[in-house]
Amino acid sequence: MSENDIVALVRETLWVALLLCAPVLLVTLVVGLILSVLQAATSISEATLTFLPKLVAGGAATLFAFPWMIHLFRDYFTHMISLFKQVHP
User: Fold this and answer.
1) How many domains in the chain?
2) How does DSSP classify residue 45?
3) Alpha helices in the chain (DSSP H)
4) pTM above 0.70, yes or no
């Protein structure tokens, strides 16, 4: 493998990691922002109030996106195995 192949491999790995994390992170970000606006509007300053809704939303996002995440990871894994077979025949 050349240096360019390794850089492309690392870039692809980071991109797949970002795609796998994105659904859960985006949903919890949106829920956290909504709850922060509601807390600011109602003057509630309880820090633990946002924990359970974000946890539930993150879990729901994981359940909803899980088939897509498994498909993405399976494709990535089979690609890595094929590259491994090319490097080590």
Assistant:
1) 1
2) -
3) 3-42, 51-87
4) yes
